[in-house]
Q: What sequence folds into this?
């Protein structure tokens, strides 16, 4: 298969800095869309993969799965997209398309495993896939999203991961107008959870350990702020939440949050791919409470989210960087020192 | 208020044996039913309360919340019951009847707290309530169940706690014909879970650490037995269960069980009112799995369960004892040495 060389940034080993790298992209096949990458969000997962925190990294790692760009070229059978369209690519570039999950539009739960935008198995060129910290990308059309032209394209990048990761559970668990919804943790995911829950008409409570985040949370759309270290406040809110979106990205003690749920209500984990502190069975049993998990979202619901963002003019709060500053950005993400997502201006790659 | 003296067995302190005791019952009020107790099941909770394991026991403790008897007397406004009716009383004898949970028929989740059949707050006589290890009991009619005459009355006693505790989650989570249902742990609760799930038409898998329980499990209605210590078997069943009923009564490692669930499926805890070993967030996140809890069941669903038992001729497997042997029975329950529930023949109390 013919290939083209593409500029990118890659990490070549655990703990190594990202540096300029040239990767190969496949030729545009009949169902493919080739996208000129304008912007790419910096997700915490990018850092986990570069640092091999999940023990499944394959080097060189070219991260990036919050991709916004314009269509450069389409394959002969592509009819959903044309040259110049504003499009997005998220965490997936392929899946089996045949299993029950794929058939239901839930490719993120593909029974045969979806192909990650980076660090996935590349069935065309062999080896592994390379992500959006690069000039362009070739993706089969089923995994390309239409991005509304009326929203700020650079601030739309994080919708493809941070956005859909919070949108999917909010809609799957049917959050509706008037529900009392708690968003735990105010980072890249949490700030999108607050915006979406607010736009859905919920009464949104930002639940955070940091009193300093109160004003920001309210500006993002939170109706209230609950400081989780304050036992008195926590008790006042006991058994009162219809839904909790837990965006904390590390193992932690979820028992205080479980105590906030109403009977039959659910707390969904979207960040903590780690062991949690011991959960007390009684906390679930006494009022039939639920703890669940959720990972990103399917292509159909991602498109629904983007359309909703177009209607409600929702984007992420972002800080733009040049690709040359990616290693410093990683350091700052690690310290939660970003409001709320870095986005790389990919023009800088051409310098 | 006038009272009558009633023979019973009570524990007077933590770790003390149960011994003969005389308690007072209130007079029959207009909405009350007085029940001559024929049989009373021995629940593991009885032991926890006698031993103050949950740190909320009030002595003397007269245990017993799996009560079967015949109506002796009814209050002037009672019209659902008449003298001689075969009836049951479970874990609750009162609730506020006004909160949203009570209004939905879910008195077990009463927002103001239900009144336990024993060790609850007695609002008529003061002090605390006394359970079914006694000659008779006076209960408001809303908390009295009709027991079908065609089933074995003594073996029906455990339906009032072990039965409804497993029935309620199986029906709430809509277990249906053809579902693959796992019942974890083969004790008093587990053996009822197997019987019910089998009668509902599910493909029932008994999940146990003990290969020795296989034959019994199949006799109770299990289609398969999965030995949870066998990593190969566990892997074969990975991601395949529609529902798991976890009856293990102590804290344990639930991660191997979570791995058995299908996408979107739920494991419900009904026994472990203790801290669980750390749960890995990834196990829930990767396939949107759920862990929940459930406690006993409401009066309406308890009646539905009893009616179902009448239609399907379902009762518990029991071993009958005299009240004089209650302390030895407690010892045997503690060692899981009973198939599957002790029931006290309350005639023995008259000796």
A:
């Amino acid at each position: 298969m013919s290939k083209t060389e593409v500029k990118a940034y890659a990490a070549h080993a655990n703990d190594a800095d990202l540096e300029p790298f040239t990767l190969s992209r496949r030729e545009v096949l009949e169902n493919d869309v080739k996208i000129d990458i304008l912007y790419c969000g910096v997700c915490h997962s990018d850092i986990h993969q570069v640092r091999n925190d999940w023990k499944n990294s394959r080097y060189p790692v070219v991260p990036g799965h919050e991709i916004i760009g314009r269509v450069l070229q389409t394959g002969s059978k592509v009819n959903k997209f044309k040259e110049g369209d504003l499009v997005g690519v998220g965490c997936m570039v392929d899946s089996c398309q045949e299993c029950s999950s794929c058939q239901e539009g839930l490719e993120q739960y593909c029974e045969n495993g979806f192909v990650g935008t980076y660090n996935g198995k590349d069935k065309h060129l062999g080896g592994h896939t390379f992500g959006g910290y690069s000039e362009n990308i070739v993706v089969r059309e089923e995994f390309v999203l239409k991005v509304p032209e009326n929203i700020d394209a650079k601030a739309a990048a994080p919708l493809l991961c941070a956005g859909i990761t919070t949108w999917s559970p909010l809609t799957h668990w049917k959050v509706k107008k008037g529900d009392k919804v708690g968003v735990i943790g105010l980072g890249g995911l949490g700030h999108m959870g607050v915006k979406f829950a607010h736009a859905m008409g919920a009464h949104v409570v930002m639940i955070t350990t940091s009193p300093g985040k109160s004003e920001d949370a309210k500006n993002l759309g939170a109706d209230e702020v609950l400081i989780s270290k304050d036992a008195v406040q926590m008790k006042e809110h006991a058994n009162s939440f219809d839904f909790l979106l837990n965006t904390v990205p590390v193992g932690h003690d979820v028992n205080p949050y479980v105590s906030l749920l109403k009977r039959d209500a659910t707390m969904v984990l979207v960040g903590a791919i780690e062991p949690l502190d011991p959960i007390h069975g009684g906390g679930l049993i006494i009022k039939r409470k639920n703890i669940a998990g959720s990972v990103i979202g399917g292509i159909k619901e991602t498109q629904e989210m983007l359309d909703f963002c177009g209607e409600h003019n929702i984007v992420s709060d972002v800080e733009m960087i040049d690709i040359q500053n990616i290693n410093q950005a990683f350091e700052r993400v690690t310290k939660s020192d970003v409001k709320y997502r870095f986005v790389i201006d990919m023009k800088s790659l051409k310098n």
